[in-house]
Amino acid sequence: MNNLYSHILGFENAFRIEIEKIKQTKPFQLYEPIAYSLSIGGKRLRPALMLHAASLFSESTTQVLPAAMAIEIFHNFTLLHDDIMDKADVRRGLPTVHKKYSENAAILSGDAMSILAFKYLAQGNSVSLAEILNLFSDTALEVCDGQQMDMDFESLSNVTIVEYMEMIRLKTAVLIASSLKIGALVSNAPHADANLLYEYGINVGLAFQLQDDWLDVFGDPAIFGKKQGGDICANKKTYLLLRAIEKADHTSLTILNEWIQKTEFDANEKIAAIKGVYEQTKVSEETHRLMVIYQNKALAALDKINVSEEKKQILQAFAIEATERMK
Amino acid sequence: MNNLYSHILGFENAFRIEIEKIKQTKPFQLYEPIAYSLSIGGKRLRPALMLHAASLFSESTTQVLPAAMAIEIFHNFTLLHDDIMDKADVRRGLPTVHKKYSENAAILSGDAMSILAFKYLAQGNSVSLAEILNLFSDTALEVCDGQQMDMDFESLSNVTIVEYMEMIRLKTAVLIASSLKIGALVSNAPHADANLLYEYGINVGLAFQLQDDWLDVFGDPAIFGKKQGGDICANKKTYLLLRAIEKADHTSLTILNEWIQKTEFDANEKIAAIKGVYEQTKVSEETHRLMVIYQNKALAALDKINVSEEKKQILQAFAIEATERMK
User: Fold this and answer.
1) Inter-residue contact A119 to B131 (CB < 8 Å)
2) A116 to chain B: which residues are within 8 Å by CB?
3) DSSP letter for each residue of B219-278
4) A91: which strand partners?
């Protein structure tokens, strides 16, 4: 996401200082896991998008830094608690908080992180605070709704594509969209423009998650940074799988069902078999066509925003990069 | 807490409607455990205190209802997650959320409850929202700090009384104090008075918790509603135990240490033995003297608040009831 690089850098410098403060806070058993979780990185995409959105309507972006930290802390809190629920041992190549410390530490430190996000939000002290707090808490609840749907899908055999798209809207897209909208609101942007940025964010977020699912199967692990086929091994109901089930002929459907039902298997064999069905059913191309639809919706919303064409370039590029990125 | 009865009743009526709405929210797997946790009761002490504090400075108290719901939802969220961490199976005579549903359901529903608290807070839409959000998030973090200290105490052999008092200030007193202060702020009370209510709340909260610890040992289970000696069986480091360790002679100290170290024991025998030491060391009387100190500090703070004597009567009675209550 090189186009947002200056915002990522500006955010990261300010955030490192905050993480250091958090690390020094007592009781250490509570705040050290928080500092650990925040310092192991991530793309810092949401705060960078928020800073950029703010910059569209205001010369200065320092006034949006507390809200940018709030959104990044909240995002990492959801990852921390999701990792407990998913029993995931590794994140970004390092042990997850519940593995490194304990499950109780991960529950309580996560709780404190979620509250900390609201504390940073309050520090912003914007004239739109009531509206921002409303949007932030609605969005945060939607992320929980999305996580619940994702967990429910594990034991459901008849998940539809509409349900899947709604799940990724809630679990991923709304936080990206709200990041942009809050950035605009802090800069006192007109409501119409703030709402168009939200619409842009929803559509980019959906495309972003579809590309994430695609990279899990077809990405280069050396670039993407994750082992290939994680979703396949876990029978994750992604767009690729749901669409393959719809399109598969009798033989391919038998292959899919057999591999989905196996509890013991060689990971590489399972990945190769299911990838074979994905290729036969051409769902990779379809996923890309769907991404382009969302990309175009995002660009159409962006087009209507009342700022100069020059100012729109970074978000135009980001909408394209979200679907073409290899990591 | 009969003196607050009208506020408890008013709150409960409004809250039942909200709980019903929450119960009808999708995805049900997320919101049903929240509705369950909120509907199994509790004293509704914090919202009632908030409503009462608001009534000292304003004719109407309806404007404080959303914040009162926020504080009650937050309080129940902490109980829900504490029950996971403490592996507690029963609360208020009913199965805890992680027992009735699952641990994952309890984690995620708790997360959503914590966010829901902030959502209700935003709905209040008061002119002091930034200040209220700051106070609420600081208080919420302090409650986490207190829970962390409480967990740390389990494996510490040298907890001091000062540390214990700090733990109960954080885990219990600050939320009571903030309930009162937020009530005052929403009613646009002068800051000096809001801060005096906070001071009153801290001291009443400390007395309240000391009485809770005392009731665990000396209360009548039929009235208190909890089995006697729960803290004793769990080696909870209460004021009673810490002070008994300080005051015990050689023989009594040996008795205490022996029972504390036993991993298998008859509960009634252990309770009787440790109660015997408490009686011999007169720590029950000492606990009451300490409660009276906090009660007097609370009354002194109340005395300075700039409202009529008549309006102070309910909080005067509450300060006394907090230390004399049997349930």
Assistant:
1) no
2) 137, 141
3) S-HHHH-S-TTHHHHTT---HHHHHHHHH--HHHHHHHHHHHH-SS--HHHHHHHHHHHH
4) A94
Q: Hey, are the CB atoms on B122 and A107 less than 8 Å from each other?
A: no
Domain positions in chain B: 190-327
- Selected residue of B96, B115, B133, B135 to mutate for chain A interface (largest A Cβ count, 10 A): B115
Query: Angle formed by the axes of helices A161-168 and A129-154, to 10°?
Result: 140
For residue B141, list chain A residues with Cβ-Cβ distance below 8 A. Answer: 112, 115-116, 119
Residue B291, pLDDT score? 97
What pLDDT, in 10s, does the model give residues B124-156? 867 899 999 999 999 999 999 999 999 999 889
CATH number (3.30.565.10, 1.10.600.10, 3.30.260.10, 1.10.730.10) of B190-327 reads: 1.10.600.10
Q: Which residue of A has its CA nearest to B77?
A: A111
Burial class (CB in 10 A: 0-12, 13-18, 19+), B326: exposed
Mean pLDDT computed over B184-192: 96
ipTM greater than 0.90: yes
At B233-281, the pLDDT tens digits run: 999 999 999 999 999 999 999 999 999 999 999 999 999 999 999 999 9
Cβ atoms of residues B187 and B196 within 8 Å = no
Nearest CA in chain B to A141: B112
Q: pTM of this prediction?
A: 0.95
Q: Which residue of A has its CA nearest to B132?
A: A122
| Chain centroid, CA B198 distance in Å | 15
| Closest CA–CA distance from residue B112 to any residue of chain A (Å) | 6
3-class secondary structure, A9: helix
DSSP secondary structure code for residue B116 in this structure: H
**Position A2 pLDDT exceeds 70:** no
Mean pLDDT (whole number) for A71-90: 96
Spell out which residues of chain B touch residue A104, defining contact as CB-CB under 8 Å: 85, 151
Q: Taking residues B169-176, report their average pLDDT.
A: 98
What is the nearest CA distance from B302 to chain A, expressed in angstroms?
29
pLDDT of residue A3: 67
Distance between CA atoms of residues A42 and A241, nearest Å: 27
List of chain A residues whose C-beta atoms are within 8 Å of the C-beta of residue B151:
29, 104, 108
B144 to A111: CB separation less than 8 angstroms, yes or no = yes
Burial category of A233 from C-beta neighbours within 10 Å (exposed 0-12, middle 13-18, buried 19 and up): middle
Beta-bridged to residue A95, according to DSSP, are A90
Of A108, A129, A140, the CB nearest to B144: A108
